[in-house]
Amino acid sequence: LDIVGTVIGMVDQGSVIDGRDIQIGDQIIAFPSNGLHTNGYSLARKVLAGIDWHEGRPVGDLSVGEALLLPHQCYLAEIRALQAAGVTIKGLAHITGGGVIDNLPRILPAGTAADIHVGSCPVPPIFELIQSEGGISQADMFQTFNMGMGMLAVLSSDALEKAHEALPHAYLVGEIVAGAGKVRLAA
């Protein structure tokens, strides 16, 4: 059985959010995730193979199986809320395969990089379990999983107050700095 999904959309040329206006000093906010979404399952299955996925509640209020089966979140409401509040979104990075480390650089213009502050956004318990059971480094976790950051939005610093009013559940997780298109994890 092979299930395939396709998404097609249309946007006015002037409304494309492509990262071209991102500048040093811009801020990065995260729309929180509830778990793996659609990526990292091969590693999760391998690491968690010795754990009973049905019994107990080792992942917050969920069993391991329930935590792994949480559906992917849609972030359209968050994007629309920011736009309705008059916030200009300079860039969006959907954190999928490759985690934060590989996805955020795709929207960074030349001469920029990103500092992401570890601990600035809650990490769903399933990631903590995967990391501890697999002995996986923090850097590898951020290169494989979303680590609680389902989607990242880049905004100018003067838009943060409006963004917080529109999305009080979003987290300020980093900033754009000078660099060569990489993500640095900062404590």
Outline the fold blueprint:
Elements: E1 27-32, H1 41-47, H2 64-68, H3 76-84, E2 91-94, H4 99-103, E3 112-117, H5 125-134, H6 138-144, E4 149-155, H7 160-166, E5 171-178, E6 183-186
Low-confidence parts: none
Q: Please, how many helices?
A: 7
Provide the residue-averaged pLDDT. 94
- Please trace the helix and strand order, writing H or E for each element: EHHHEHEHHEHEE
Task: Quickly give the CATH architecture.
Answer: Alpha-Beta Complex
User: Describe the biggest sheet?
Assistant: 6 strands, mixed
The number of distinct β-strands equals: 6
Distance between the termini: 44 Å
* Strand line-up in the sheet with most strands: 2-4-1-5-3-6
Give the full name of the CATH homologous superfamily: PurM-like C-terminal domain
Percent in helix: 25-40%
Query: What is the number of independent domains?
Result: 1
Shape: globular
Strand content: 15-25%
Q: According to CATH, what is the class?
A: Alpha Beta
Q: Helix/strand-derived class?
A: alpha+beta
Radius of gyration: 17 Å
What is the CATH topology descriptor?
Phosphoribosyl-aminoimidazole Synthetase, Chain A, domain 2
